[in-house]
Amino acid sequence: MNPQRSLIELDRIERIYPGSPPVEALRPATLAISSGDYVAVVGPSGSGKSTLLNVLGLLDVPTSGRYWLDGFDTGRLAPRQRAALRGSRIGFVFQAFHLMDHRSVLENVALTGTYSHLSRSRRHAAARDAIDRVGLTHRVDFLPSRLSGGERQRVAIARALAGSPKVLLCDEPTGNLDSHRAAEIIDLFEAMHADGLAVVVVTHDEGLAARAHRRLHVHDGEVTVSDDATHPRDDGAPTGRRAPEVIRP
Ligand SMILES: Nc1ncnc2c1ncn2[C@@H]1O[C@H](COP(=O)(O)OP(=O)(O)O)[C@@H](O)[C@H]1O
Ligand SMILES: [Mg+2]
Q: Model-level pTM greater than 0.85?
């Protein structure tokens, strides 16, 4: 396997939660996700979808196997390097939006760790850009309590975009939304994907899953892949959005 070929390469990645008995939440999985991919992760509750996403997002460490992210062998990184790689490559979107209630939309986006090396004015300019991208320019001074669910999720997406990630990892992002708001969020993911971002989305929403170009099925910790032949895969060619190869401290 050539570790440089795809944005994400897993080689027999396994996650066992210790206990008696231990839970094999992710059975050895070998797969690749490219920079142009739009992937839905589907499967019953408890099958291991979030476990897979957390491993991909460097929030969790696999029990065994190797994981290359953007060419970096993640198992060989020190915790600081892992955190830096996560901050510069990964954007997360969760079902519960996890916004700070007493901070404005602008501050929720500007106060992400990925901006911590910037001055306040640059942080705010970068945050405004991300807020523009999700169509919330007119809500920039609002508190989350004054926003609809769909708008809150868009703030969370703006926050995820803050570090100019290469991949958005989304765990049931429309689970708390009505179908109309969910459709808006799906449209937004497609716009981000068209902009050159890889998108991996865990979902029970058939509409969302059907619009992705690849599907990962997870059953009892086992991952299988099915591809949509009408959407040929991008094989990891540069997208024009490539970040420098250095890992920022
Ligand atoms: N921290 C944990 N400790 C022990 N078992 C866990 C932990 N997190 C998840 N599990 C178990 O791992 C399996 C997969 O969970 P999860 O990845 O959350 O599934 P899904 O997201 O598909 O609902 C389940 O059996 C779950 O109970
Ligand atoms: Mg889950």
A: yes
